[in-house]
Specification:
disordered C terminus, 750 residues, Immunoglobulin-like, five-stranded mixed beta sheet, four-stranded mixed beta sheet, Cadherin-like_dom, alpha+beta, single chain, elongated
Amino acid sequence: MDLGDNAVKYTLSGEGAGPIFTIDQITGDIHALVGLDREEKSFYTLRAQAVDMHTGVPLEPESEFIIKVQDINDNEPRFPDGPYSASVPEMSPTGTYVTQVTATDADDPTYGNSARIVYSILHGQPYFSVDPKTGVIRTALANMDREVKGEYQVLLQAKDMGGQLGGLASTTTINITLSDVNDNPPRFAKSIFHLRVPESALVGSAVGRIRAHDLDAGSNAEVDYAIVPGDEGNMFDIISDGQTQEGVVVLKKPLDYETKKSYTFKVEASNIQLDPRFLHLGPFKDSATVKVNVLDMDEPPVFTKPSYSMDVYEDTPPGTIIGSVTAHDLDASSSAVRYSLEWHTESDSCFDVDTIEGTISTNEYLDRETAVQHNITVVATKVNNPLMSTKVSVTVSVLDVNEFPPELAVPSDTFVCENSRVGQVIQTVSAVDMDLPPVGQRFFFKSPKELRNRNFTVRDFGNNTAGIVTRRSGFQRRLQDAYVLPVVVEDSGYPAQSSTATLTIRVCSCEAGGSLLTCSAEAVFLPVGLSTGALMAILLCVALLIVMAALYMGQRRNKEKETLMTSKEDIRDNVIHYDDEGGGEADTRAFDMGTLRNTHSQRTSTHSSTSKKEKNGYGDGVLLHLSSRSGDIRSPDIHCQTASIITAINAKAPLSSRGRVTGGDAEIIKTFIEQRLEESQEGYAAPPYDSLATYAYEGDGSVAGSLSSIEESWVIEDSGDFSSLGDWGQSFKTLASILDRQPPTLTEES
């Protein structure tokens, strides 16, 4: 539509229109007003439109077009991270990777060769090389030694246009360091080291330092020192100093110039960490000789012990020597030594030391209760050099004298069950002692020798405890509710101390298992809920039983005064027999009936002509029968002996060999038996005719001791307890029930 008559006008809009680009309104030519940089903006989007010059009416829609900026090689390569640093182990082979660098070019890589970069090394050959395309740097020389040269600087160039002439280029620096490897062993600078040490040097003190040099660095240069076993190195030790890599020689044992003046030993230095790649280079260790000369010094005296311990008994008289200390001058001059005490507390004045001999003695009496232990200090001084002195600690322990006797630890409650057996332990007791007991002190328990207890005894268990043991059974609370037992306890101290304590033992009612029921007075508990009439009936029945029992007892006493036979019936009809005593009705050989009848007449005449004390209760006929026919009687041999003794006494004839007693003893036995028979006839119901009370006397000189009831009769007198007879069988229970009844109290007139 533009006919060239200037009727059409062109307009330009969009990015860059005006300041960068302009359009000729008549011709439509577009011009750049400023220089363009592709690296800043590579293209512009614009809109153009043709409008009527006069009316301004668009002649066509807007047209959009893009102006692209064509690239030229106006930017050189750049290294954004330079300069660079890298490291590579020393002794690396050729071609070992070191690092990679990359350069950038702002030119368009898609247009021409403006952005094509090539790398090259300007400085750093022949040690390193670079890949021209990738920029990877590698070692170009093998076995580079860090100890010779440890750092390298490489100048690297990057050029665009593929490295062609006219291309732009830039450079960067790469600092390459060789890292250390353990390729060098430690080496001593000299083969022998001379050290000096005074003989007074303390154990553990440093004698001197030696060093082996290692060209490596870091952990590869760490050196470990050791004394080669043997020679004279046992007196010393060597420690590796991690900071200076030196070996510190220290004293391991005390030195004495007079004994040995010098020591020679070898020291070996080696690397701690080894690299197996370089072991072929040789052993990574070195050795040197160390000679230590001992210097003579004036030393203080030396005690024979590092400390002393002494014991002394309390209350030891003053001036008593309790021990001694000894010190010597080890120097060649061998000066004399003088001793003294160094006082710290007032208690040190309790002791004294002999200045020449070193003996320690007491100055006053010691009391363990005041101080159990004393610590004193003894000083030894050289005579030719008083400045040279040494001290030693002396511990004096005050030993306890056995002053206090042990005391029985009396239990809170001691009891014995009525059903206790013989030999049963009813209580365990122990002892306490106010003295300080040494290790292993023992207490001994026993009963007093002068007091014989027939009910209880003391059994020492051997572990500082003892048991109270019953010697009999059949305890009864209604006869005696408490017993007294003296116990003697003795210690093992020196001198031995003992004391006697009295133990009260109560009699208690116990269950079958031994559990305690009661030890107090037994109360009668009436059933709960009974009416008054029922209670009266119970009391009436009890009273009736008491009256019947009294009548029965009276009737039995009257029968005792009658003759043995009241009728002419055969006596065998009235005899209750036991097989172990007198036989039965079928056994006519055990007892002669005629003899029993003769007994009646003999007892009658005896009763009328003699006093009560002459009655024996057996009947001479029975005694004669037992004496003459002892071989036919099925009874224990003790009956035969008793019969022969009593018969001999009544006839006033010599005793048979079976009696085994003297004449004086027979009189005593006779009197005792007659007294017992008289008491039985007066106070007790007569025993059944088949029951025979026997007494036997063992006689003097028996090793086993007497087993007769004569010597032990006082047990029954004191306790009045016959229940133990029931242990012998059912037949003796009847006898025990009869003897258990207390005889009535007789006045002097009766």
